[in-house]
Design goal:
Blueprint lengths: L6 H31 L6 H21 L4 H25 L3 E8 L4 H9 L5 E7 L2 E11 L3 H11 L4 E7 L17 H9 L1
Antiparallel strand pairs: 1-3, 1-4, 2-3
């Protein structure tokens, strides 16, 4: 126990421990908030438990050594780093779905067919934009498939206007490897002919 009260521990190791622990609890907190925003409520309480447990341990150590400026800096730096790392992890895990809205002046049948052939559902509507007639295509995709769909759009129209938003929940739909996605191109064209 003398080691934990030694100058070596208090000056050098404690700030590092606080920094690392703060990264852990803020990363967990960032993931918890992201999961809640995506409607994934089951895991959030478990993450919240560990987030608060780590936070209490860290804050108690800071209060015991309130005169250490390095502990304050480590606490703040760990908080900032934890936010950044949490966001990076969430981007890599790519949880949930997004809605992609694509607006083009080009006829969109070719793009819709290509998306359907790859198993992505796409809905289009005719609309009027500032420059005249446009097609608006809506496509809800899993976040881990987003780059693939965006590449199809950019190949179809490199100067396309599109927006991407998070979707809280999805019911049914056409996604790769679903029963709907396994239809043949003939069935897709037959449906369009009606």
């Amino acid at each position: 126990m003398e080691f934990f009260n030694s100058e070596l521990f208090l000056i050098y190791l404690l700030p590092f421990v606080i920094f690392f622990a703060r990264i852990c609890d803020v990363t967990i907190g960032t993931m918890r908030i992201i999961l809640l925003s995506k409607g994934m409520k089951g895991l959030a309480p478990v993450l919240g438990f560990f987030e608060v447990l780590i936070w209490i341990l860290v804050i108690s150590k800071i209060m015991m050594h309130a005169s250490s400026f390095l502990c304050y800096v480590a606490y703040a730096a760990g908080f900032a780093s934890g936010n950044y790392i949490g966001i990076i992890i969430e981007e890599k895990v790519a949880l949930g779905h997004v809605i992609l809205r694509f607006i083009t002046t080009k006829p969109a049948e070719e793009l819709i067919l290509q998306l359907n052939e790859k198993g992505f559902g796409a809905t289009s509507i005719d609309a009027e934009g500032a420059t005249g007639h446009v097609n608006i295509i809506f496509c809800i995709v899993k976040r881990d498939s987003l780059n693939t769909v965006v590449s199809y759009i950019k190949n179809f129209n490199p100067s396309a206007f599109y927006t991407i938003e998070d979707v809280k929940s999805v019911s049914l739909g056409i996604f790769p490897n679903s029963a709907y996605a396994k239809r043949s191109v003939f069935e897709i064209w037959k449906r369009r002919g009606k």
